[in-house]
Fold this sequence. Notes:
It is built from two helices and five strands, in the order αβββαββ.
Amino acid sequence: MSTLFEKIINREIPADIVYEDDFSLAFKDINPQAPVHILIIPKKPIEKLSDAQSDDKELLGHLMLVAGKIASELNLDNTFRIVINNGAGAGQSVFHLHLHMMSGRPLSWPPG
Ligand code: AMP
């Protein structure tokens, strides 16, 4: 059964897409926790970061570079936070690896 994010990749459900290439997709979070809250996902269905394998190394690096590219396109002034929730106990609710990219307000530390 495909996850919510696979359905977004396949255009079976709508999303506000801000970036796409052959390996990744980025779209606005439906329940934003900051003025800018974008989810960056690989098109390859990896359930969570800890399931990634060494042959995913390039893909994981690519997602980070996509974050930088989006930050520059959106003029985020090099100020943003990337969060990956890994596992239900860490707050993961959609089991398709995703980077939360947040910006546009002061971001306190440590996160909750
Ligand atoms: P996580 O809790 O780390 O698994 O993050 C899942 C994120 O997906 C949450 O921030 C949700 O608000 C977001 N989300 C859930 N459904 C959608 C959707 N249809 N479109 C965009 N974002 C979504």
